TrEMBL record:
The UniProt record lists the keyword Iron-sulfur: no
The protein, known as: Shikimate 5-dehydrogenase
Enzyme Commission number, as recorded: 1.1.1.25
Domain of life: Bacteria
GO MF, any single term: shikimate 3-dehydrogenase (NADP+) activity
Domain Shikimate dehydrogenase substrate binding N-terminal: 27-108
Native species: Bifidobacterium subtile
Amino acid sequence: MAASNHRERAVQQEHASQPALRHCCAVLGKPIAHSLSPVLHNAAYRALGLIGWEYSREEVGQEDFERFLSSLDGTWAGLSLTMPLKKTIMSYGTPCDRWSRELGLANTAVFRGEPSAHDAPHVVSHIIDPHSVDSHSAASRNGIALYNTDVDGIVLAFRHAWEATVADQLPKAGEPANVVILGNGNTALSALAACVVMTHGAHVTMVARHPEAHLSITQFAQRHAGTISVQPLSMAGDDLDVAIERLGNADIVISTLPAHAADGIAQLAYAKLVPGAVHGALLDVAYDPRPSSLQLAWSQAGGIAIGGEEMLLYQAIVQVCLMTGRDAGNYRVAESETRAAAGHAMSACWESEHATSAGDTDDVRLEQTMREALEEAM
């Protein structure tokens, strides 16, 4: 045993004397200066003691995406992608999780390769060794693993809010949930997927300017007809009054609209939803301004309001795990094929699946550090 400990210390000293290899990650988009992803990822690297890891913003649009991708060398470990690049990336890599495959959307790209001898012990084989690959291998099709962590981010944002909630504000156990989704773009598609994960069944009202214009939404609803039912409503006239009524009865509300795009609905909600009128939880994926008008209207009517920073935080935690090779199992709730029961049954399921063990100490520290960094930046 003593000899074994001596060899282990010798290996650690040898690795400590080696210069840290550089690992680059970034978030891509256009515009991208507003992104808080670097705050989250760089805080995670500090929490995990990852030396040589850096995460930046890169202003890249569709027109220059391929050129950017082909310019990457073997120091690159991963990319975070904003729309419309979440669709664009699908032509360059291999979908490696359930929702990137089904939705055709990936917000995370991980460059796979051989592990470096000097990587941290928890870093596994998909991390590229900069000294063992040619300058363009990071951009080869077979070397890019694609993931959708947005669905995880939505599910975990609700879970975090529900864990601190009184029982009468939870969806009723064993009953289909009433859901309202504002918007019908690609983020709404991820929101629908989150409903499949979070509920045994959901009656979904999709409220949008052109609610039937997104063919992918219709196709998704048809594929999951036994799990969710979707009814479209427009954001005009009598339909909007009906939408406000649906909000009042909703267990789950997800606004996927850009900042301020839901302000008109918020004003109507202020006027029609009196205090105590709602019981459900609302997630507004936009995190600037914070809180949004919709969050304020929902809170004054008695509901639980969740800011988009919660989704941002949790999807980023999964990204960090995937890019650095950590086990992401505690956060990949959206990968479960088992539908969690609503309400207390849902909470119990999560608690049993993700109960903190001695091996999860790093996960607790990681989440806390990233949350603190986000709070300071906002």
